[in-house]
Design goal:
about 400 residues, alpha/beta, 7-stranded mixed sheet, 15 strands
Length: about 400
């Protein structure tokens, strides 16, 4: 059942120089009475980034203001606490991602529009009388891809979200658990019979997925060869040290793996090749992916979960015939939709590791979002997601909304 909305309007947008705005940290015991944008009739004033058509985020995104009525039946009204900015979110806006939120006018937009964003940590503000599983103050995350999370508030049926145990966690940790860490976990568990002491290789190793894979590998006693983009001087040395501290066995850059002698180096690391590399994780594609494939032992598997280079894989017949290599893909969104119970189990396990201090957060760049935040500030952050060598994952951190 769609939420009932009262009259809507588009806010005035003022062009101002970008400047970070201070915001108070959000704790597990968020005081609900701090919300000041609720009318005497219980209507919640909300804002959302929306787009009426696919295109460049800078061209199609606008900031829309609307009102949400009190929840009834199985509806819950949620306040967004944190929402990351992932490349897939940008692809949705551009129209190049297989799953996209529907265009509609439920928010009272002048024309059918969609809300971007797939991950978030929400706090339950209120629940309808028919809601059985959620109550005021609970933390929840989207149950499926395409919910539309780049907004201050929303109202959905209770089965559209998944409750998490918030004890000992931050909203940032909860908001970022369901995509990158789950992707890394499932790829290491589901595609090759890895046991303690086995080897795998990955590119994009300092990405969210890559960092998660390194940490799981360390916990499970796996050896890893981690390929990162080349950085000059101190920046490169710092990144290598950071990856090794996370648990990487070997760290190399993307130029080194293209060298003709790289295979000999791999043999040195793997006991003269007697410890074959069983699994390769690829998020780049093109020649860089084939360089990974060449390191695999007979019967090895390459799992592709991204294609940052936008170049196709050119698999030589010898890899298939003589080495019996397997090339498969993994899309965590589809996996989660097919196996919702396993998804929840995986998320709960990872959150337990985070809670116990065994799993480190990916570096993040907070983007404050309060009721007064202007569209331009938000679009600057979205644009930053498209740039290379970022300081960390962008994440909307919601203050007084």
């Amino acid at each position: 059942m769609a939420p009932r909305l009262c009259s809507s309007f588009s806010p005035s947008i003022f062009t101002v120089p970008f400047r970070p705005r201070a915001t108070s940290s959000i704790k597990a015991d968020l005081p609900l009475d701090r919300r000041r944008h609720i009318s005497a009739y219980g209507y919640t004033q909300a804002k959302a980034l929306v787009y009426p058509k696919h295109g460049s985020p800078a061209d199609v995104l606008t900031l829309h203001t609307h009102s949400i009525s009190p929840p009834h039946s199985r509806l819950v009204t949620l306040r967004t606490a944190a929402a990351p900015l992932n490349p897939a979110d940008i692809n949705q806006i551009q129209g190049t991602y297989p799953i996209a939120p529907p265009f509609g006018q439920e928010l009272g937009t002048p024309q059918p529009s969609a809300v971007p964003g797939n991950e978030a940590c929400f706090e339950v503000l209120s629940a309808g009388s028919g809601c059985k599983s959620l109550s005021k103050g609970d933390w929840v995350i989207p149950a499926r891809t395409g919910l539309g999370t780049w907004r201050t508030h929303l109202q959905v049926e209770e089965d559209k979200v998944m409750k998490v145990n918030k004890d000992g966690l931050t909203v940032e940790q909860v908001a970022t658990v369901s995509v990158n860490p789950v992707t890394a976990y499932r790829m290491l568990k589901d595609f090759a019979p890895l046991k303690e002491g086995d080897w795998f290789i990955q590119n994009g190793a300092n990405s969210g997925v890559g960092r998660a894979a390194v940490q799981f590998a360390k916990m499970w006693g796996l050896n890893s060869i981690c390929v990162v983009r080349k950085r000059e001087g101190v920046a490169g040395e710092t990144l290598n040290k950071e990856m090794q501290e996370l648990g990487a066995t070997v760290v190399v850059n993307d130029e080194e793996i293209m060298d003709k002698g790289f295979g000999e180096r791999v043999k040195e690391w793997t006991n003269s090749g007697r410890e074959p590399i069983k699994l390769a994780l690829n998020c780049v594609g093109g020649d860089a992916a084939m360089a990974l494939a060449k390191t695999l032992g007979a019967g090895g598997t390459m799992v592709t979960y991204g294609a940052m280079s936008k170049s196709p894989l050119r698999v030589g017949a010898g890899m298939l015939i003589f080495k019996d290599l397997r090339f498969v893909g993994f899309w965590v969104s589809r996996w989660g939709d097919y196996f919702p119970d396993e998804k929840k189990k995986t998320i709960d396990e990872i959150l337990g590791l985070i809670r116990g201090g065994r799993f480190k957060d990916v570096p993040m760049v907070e983007v404050p979002w309060s009721y007064e935040t202007q569209k331009e500030d938000l679009l600057d952050a979205v644009q930053g997601t498209l740039e290379g060598f970022r300081k960390g994952k962008g994440i909307f951190k919601f203050g007084d909304t």
